[in-house]
Every structure is written in structure tokens, then in C-alpha cells.
Amino acid sequence: MAVAVGDRAPDFSLPSGTGTTIHLQDYIGKKPVVLYFYPKSDTPGCTVQACSFRDAYTVFQELGAEVIGLSNDSVAAQDRFAKNHQLPFILLSDEGNQVRKLYGVPGPIFGMVPGRVTYIIDQEGIVRHIFDSMLNFSAHVDESLKILRQLQD
After folding, report:
1. Residues of the chain above pLDDT 70, percent
2. For residue 107, what pLDDT band results from cuts at 50, 70 and 90?
3. What is the side-by-side strand order in the sheet with 90-93?
4. pTM (2 decimals)?
5. What H or E segment, with its residue span, contains residue 139?
6. What is the mean pLDDT of residues 53-72?
7. Most buried among 12, 34, 101, 126, using CB within 10 Å?
8. How many Å apart are CA 151 and CA 81, to the nearest integer?
9. Residue 138 has what pLDDT?
């Protein structure tokens, strides 16, 4: 069953591109989280999306939020992706797609490309917004910032 707006965000632990294990629960009670699932590191669309998050990262920080991206790429691939594009936020390796399945993010579309979905999780761990768009890469950033600003009001 897919996670919906108003649900408590399911907790998980995954390795980051740097090899550190990241627990979603470590952020709950401290700051909102922008959790974005993307198909594959270093592909054109995913690079545009990641660089859009990178370019707006200081705004996310000013809003008190953390950005976490994840795909089923290996830890080494996530590390290369982050270094190649100077990504300042966390990238996680969900190689078995366990977290993708836990959240109900669509699997391979047409048997080829996993879904691209962003979840805005408030400081208390509640999903406040879900944005799902395969092709409007930068809109994931715009939607996230809009919702984070609304949560501050």
C-alpha cells in the first residue's frame, strides 16, 4: 500500500554515497525532510533534477529542511554522482528497492524506468505532500519549496 498525505513516513535505514548509514528517524523531531526517489544516477533527467536540488539547497537549509535523494544505484555510484555534480545533500543506495516498495513508489514503468516521486515530510514525521512527475524534473524542487514555505506559515 502506498504512503499517502497525512500518513506517518515509514522509517528506514540505508547506506549513503559516503558509506554512512542514514536513518530517517534521526531527522524526525528536528527538521522537515524532502525525500525524493529518482530512477538512476548520472542519467540526463536525474542529473537535471539533482542539480536543481543542488542549486536551491541553501534555500532548503534556510527553511530548516534536509534533502535526501535515493535510487537503487550502488553506494559507489551514489558517491560518484554526488562528486561529479557537487551535490551537497544526502544520496542513499536502495539497491534492493526495499524503501521504494515501502513507500509505494512505482516500480519500473514499461518495465524500464522506476518512478520519480518526492515526499515532503514535516518535522513530526507526517507526509504533507507528494509530487509525482517523471518528466518535470525541476518541478520537484519548486513543489518542495512551496510546501515547505506553507508549513512555516
Report:
1. 97
2. confident
3. 90-93, 66-71, 33-37, 117-121, 127-132
4. 0.94
5. helix 139-152
6. 97
7. 34
8. 31
9. 85
- Indicate the burial class of 152 (C-beta count within 10 angstroms; 0-12, 13-18, 19 or more): exposed
Concatenating the DSSP letter of every residue in 10-45 gives PP-EEEBTTS-EEEGGGTTTT--EEEEE-S-TTSHH
* One-letter identity of residue 27: Y
Is there a catalytic annotation at residue 51? no
Residue 134: closest CA among 53, 68, 40: 40
CATH number for the segment(s) 13-152: 3.40.30.10
Active-site annotation holder among 9, 46, 68, 127? 46
Closest to 60 (Cα-Cα) out of 37, 90, 16 = 90
Q: 73 and 140 in contact (C-beta within 8 Å)?
A: no
C-alpha cell, 149: 514555505
Instruction: Give yes or no for residue 133 having a pLDDT over 90.
Output: no
Cα dihedral across residues 24, 75, 63, 144: positive or negative: negative
Q: Map grid coordinates 513516513 to a residue.
A: 9
